[in-house]
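Think of the structure tokens as a kind of shorthand, similar to the way a musician reads notation: each symbol stands for something richer, in this case the local conformation of the backbone. In the example below we present two proteins back to back. Begin with the first one, reading the sequence and then the tokens, and try to describe in your own words what changes along the chain.
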Amino acid sequence: MIEHEECQQKGRGTLNSNRPTKHTKISAKKARSMRVQDSPDTFSLDRVVPYFQPIMDLEHDAVWRFECLARYISDDEVTFLPNQFLHLIDDEDLNISLTTHIFQAGLFHFRHMASHWHLNLGPEDIQSDVLPNLIYQHLQERRVQHKISFELAANLAREHKKDVVRFGKLCEQLGIDLFIDHFGSASGNIQHMLDLPIKGIKVAGSLIRQLPDSLETTDFVQHLADKASEQGCIVVAEHIEKMETLRAVKEIGIRYAQGYFFSNPQASPEAEEAD
């Protein structure tokens, strides 16, 4: 399952804002309240396509990786975000099918590129053998080449810790990075989360947006970043929408960042990565 993207103010989303893309023929206000209305009889995974948003290396001012995001394109070319169509996925129990569909679409898009890319997973994905078997298959065919990373929401990691540990160890064996998304968005033991078999964390946008105006939040994010760095974890700041937010992130010393400030999600990952 592709996890719901976190809403943002006038900006992007990784389960992003409810703002439509530039291809949408309806107003932003109307799009925010819309959901895909197709019945299960007409809904098709073929209409779900990958979009890509760069994760930036602030030290080199270049694209580091991409995050692969799911979008539903209707017959009249309106683009819907996950929170506007995942009710149909849930109703038809298509969560794992959606993940494998986007996984294979991502492989196709990056087949001739050296780019590293991220894909969000849900609880069904880490509890099933479908995705690991698919990864094994593509590794044998040398189509993955250790270019993919997976992301799990922080609440999923807390609620399914045993599954996350098992899946994280599998990822380590395969040379695949595992990240915790929306890190710090809810109360919980930070150290326990960092002790999971993960490569990095993505600090929640709800915290990042407060940095320019809240010393308390800045101190907390600094603490998160320091603890993660001590564990050897990569730290990514999510949902950068304004220059003042970017400045605050740089002052904390976070190297990687993502958000609408840099780029909207695009249908094709055209930018080159940083080394």
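Once you have a description of the first chain, move to the second and do the same.
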Amino acid sequence: MANILHINCSPVGPRSESYKLSERIVALLLKREPTATITGRFLGSGTIPHIDAEYAAALGAAEASSAEKRLEGSFSLSEELVQELEIADYVVIGTPMHNFTVPSTLKAWIDHVARVRRTFTIGRQGKVASLRDRPVFVAVASGGRYSSGPARQPDFLTPYLNAVLGMIGLCDVTFFSIEGTALSPETVAVIRAETERKLEAHFSSLSSPSPDELAKQRRLGELLDDGLKLTFPASDPVAPFIEEQLTSHRGR
């Protein structure tokens, strides 16, 4: 059974365009995975605090502190959020664009899940992701336009999310947007219709994974989320597939 992690970041809640768009994405995923379970995280009201001093100090430390080992303070919530992410087969993020980038509520979530020695490691060649990849869908709403047009505003949200999610292993990221929510209702209605066409086209082009493929993906996920430990016997029929994927993962 698949699991969908649904994260919403707008302080406006269900009335926001990003919330509605993310709900539509979840509905399309449920068409593909009708038995999927949904884990919801509403961040819009600031339910996730900023990281504490112990956590901040750990980000630049070469070894784990006692608070990190015992999962004290911010580490406790971080572990809860990371585990939600690990069991998810799909991640859907609904977020507004605030001042050209992600809102502080989403940044607080990112700071908790992008954790050294947990979701990424640091070696001689830099940071190495520790999580397995999975589809991530980002539903963005912005008052102005950032993808095209003469009044196009800067976009630091898209490259930032691609970079920080990729750092922990989430590289399969797809963005959908409702741009120009501050424009006239008639214009916004046209924008919504265009986004709906893009959604339908994207999800209709996806094929449902076979039972064999699902088994391989779950087996791979268990290995990657367990620290990339090769514990399967050589006789395992999915061993060559997993070895290939692990080699690719290490090379990122």
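Compare your description with these statements about the second chain. Residues 209-252 form one domain.
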